[in-house]
Amino acid sequence: MVSEAVRAFLSIDITDQELLSRIEKVQERLDTDAARMKLVEIKNIHYTMRFLGDTQLNRIHDIKTCLEEVQFNPFEIEVFGVGAFPNIRRPRVIWVGAGQNENQISQLKREIDNSLKKLGYQLEKKYTPHATIARVRYIKDSQRISLNLEDLARESIGMMTVSQVTMKKSILTPSGPIYETLWKIPIK
Asked: Domain range for residue 56?
């Protein structure tokens, strides 16, 4: 019997309303005349720790059990700088990154990946801590969007406490994804 699957990922949610308001102000400073883009709804902004893809419902509990074994203390990180994938000259995904204590979020990512190896997940080669704030549909003026992103690259947005990891399912719709929390585990 095949179990139903959901499109799932692990995240660190940004829940502080003041911080989300500052991120929204950064979104407003993006040059939408230089590139046509879709802004991520403020309630959906999060640091992706691991995209799991189509995940069988019967594996969701196993993933939670694995992550409950991860030993990691809560920590502070700075939400810092605007960047883009693959780069600022040809952005497809625009994000806010991590500044102070970036190594802590990267270490937590390694711990999560090492824990998931028990379930057959492969280690991811490269990780850039980021929270997507916009997706670029079409670039009208690459030099102008590049300069806009350079201006925002050193923007300090604020500090946040990382104290839990969330598993969410993502339902893709024509108007954008809908995220539903499946579970949260505290970092201890």
From this structure: 5-178
Q: First vs last Cα of the chain: how many Å apart?
A: 36
Task: Note the pLDDT tens digit of each residue in 97-138.
Answer: 999 999 999 999 999 999 999 999 998 888 999 999 999 999
84: in domain: yes
CA distance linking residue 121 with residue 131, whole number of Å: 22
- In the DSSP assignment, the letter for residue 156 is E
The residue count for the chain: 188
* pLDDT 10s digits, 25-51: 999 999 999 999 999 999 999 999 999
pTM above 0.90, yes or no: yes
Q: Which residues are catalytic, by number?
A: 46, 130
